[in-house]
Write a structure and sequence with these properties.
Keywords: Signal. By secondary structure, the protein is an alpha+beta fold. The protein has two domains: 224 residues, no CATH class; 133 residues, no CATH class. Helix content is 15%, strand content 39%. It has four helices and 18 strands. It has an eight-stranded antiparallel sheet, with no helix packed on it. Strands 11-12-16-15-9-18 form a six-stranded mixed sheet, with helices on both faces. β11 and β12 form a beta hairpin. α2 packs antiparallel against α3. The two termini are 24 Å apart.
């Protein structure tokens, strides 16, 4: 029996390679040090009445900018390298004579900072905290520190540093440049029908959560797209399982949320009316619409040590769209549509590497990618 392209891809998707899991320990690897210049204000005055330079230590980068944080504070010393007035110039520190401060009983040293960080990653300079190596970034962040009801500091952190031995995470939503036409039957054009189409697309993509069940057979991970003759399949391979130390029970839901919130509207909003057939009354008209799906989607949640940027794919999802058994797949190459679909997830260049975390729950930095493909062949 001849297999359709969809069936062939289903067979190919069962061969997934398992990556190793990076070890973790509870060692404050997500801690962050901010390097600040602050101005003192009283009441609603627009004129400052003094200034200070400060180092702030917070235990977790991802929550460090939330309201209500209580940083450990220290005053930095440039050991006479900079000017003796105005804001401290954090760029004057050298490896031989770094800027220093004591945070939580640990010596902090920073050197080699530039006025501008790397244009892609914002990386600049190095630091140590209690002997742990840190990487630093030039990405200004504004804070307000309340001292009393009538007094506060407005602070600018031009630089911040995080641990090099911390694990960081990013998640890629890879879109094939091949597309699958899906013909959907619904009512007459209008808001109600548009809502139905969007709901059907969302339901199809949300099935990613249903598919993640150890008791399901491979066949059970294939779902009919409602009101169509097409199907969507999911092959899921997570390195960490329920019960493992660093297993994130919400990661799959987070992936599905990205698909439902970002990709589904892009698919549904581009639906094209094909034709309508008149029934006994105008209200019974039956219409068909063409929806364009990515033929394949490859989601990869990747981790690396911040120091080496050698990304390892930890969790993988492969999604395939095509006609159900016996149907003829409507697949074509369309790079322009793939660019639109990948674009809804954002660009890799928009991610600041130092801000992603493998400790915190979630996906880390999310971005879209395009994979060159041929219809019926796995990406």
């Amino acid at each position: 029996m001849r297999l359709s392209s969809f069936a062939s891809l289903l067979l190919a998707s069962t061969s997934l390679v398992t990556a190793r899991v990076l070890p973790r320990d509870d060692d404050n690897r997500d801690e962050v040090v901010y390097l600040l210049n602050c101005k003192n204000y009283f009441g609603n005055s627009v004129f400052n009445s003094g200034s200070k330079d400060a180092l702030w230590l917070l235990p977790n980068f991802e929550t460090s900018r939330n309201a209500g944080q209580h940083p450990i504070e220290a005053y930095p010393s440039d050991h006479g390298l900079g000017k003796d007035y105005g804001d401290m110039d954090y760029t004057v520190g050298t490896e031989a004579q770094p800027i220093t401060g004591t945070l939580d009983g640990r010596l902090f040293q920073v050197w080699g900072l530039a006025e501008k960080g790397d244009p892609n990653t914002s990386l600049t300079g190095e630091a140590k905290l209690g002997g742990h190596d840190m990487a630093c970034y030039q990405a200004p962040t504004v804070f307000t520190q309340t001292i009393s009801k009538d007094r506060h500091y407005k602070c600018v952190a031009r630089y911040w540093c995080t641990r090099r031995d911390r694990t960081i995470r990013r998640t890629s939503f890879g879109i094939s440049n091949t597309t699958a036409d899906v013909i959907l039957t619904s009512g007459s054009p209008g808001d109600a029908t548009s809502a139905v189409i969007l709901a059907n697309v969302k339901e199809a993509l949300r099935n990613l959560q249903v598919a993640y069940d150890g008791d399901l057979s491979d066949d059970a991970a294939v779902f009919t797209i409602k009101d169509t003759e097409s199907a969507i399949s999911f092959a899921i391979d997570f390195d960490e399982k329920a019960g493992d130390l660093n297993f994130d029970p919400n990661r799959l839901k987070d992936m599905a949320d990205q698909l439902v919130d970002k990709l589904a509207p892009a698919i549904a909003n581009a639906a094209k009316l094909v034709k309508c057939s008149q029934g006994w009354g105008a209200q019974y008209a039956s219409c068909t619409y063409k929806l364009v799906f990515p033929e394949q989607i490859k989601i990869e949640s990747q981790i690396t040590l911040q120091a080496n940027q050698n990304w390892i794919t930890q969790d993988k999802v492969k999604i395939i769209v095509g006609k159900k058994a016996g149907g003829k797949d409507e697949c074509k190459t369309d790079g322009a549509v793939a660019s639109v679909f990948a674009g809804v997830f954002g660009a890799l260049g928009a991610i600041t590497t130092g801000g992603m975390s493998g400790v915190a729950q979630g996906l880390g930095g999310v971005f879209g990618a395009i994979h060159a493909a041929k219809c019926g062949l796995p990406i």
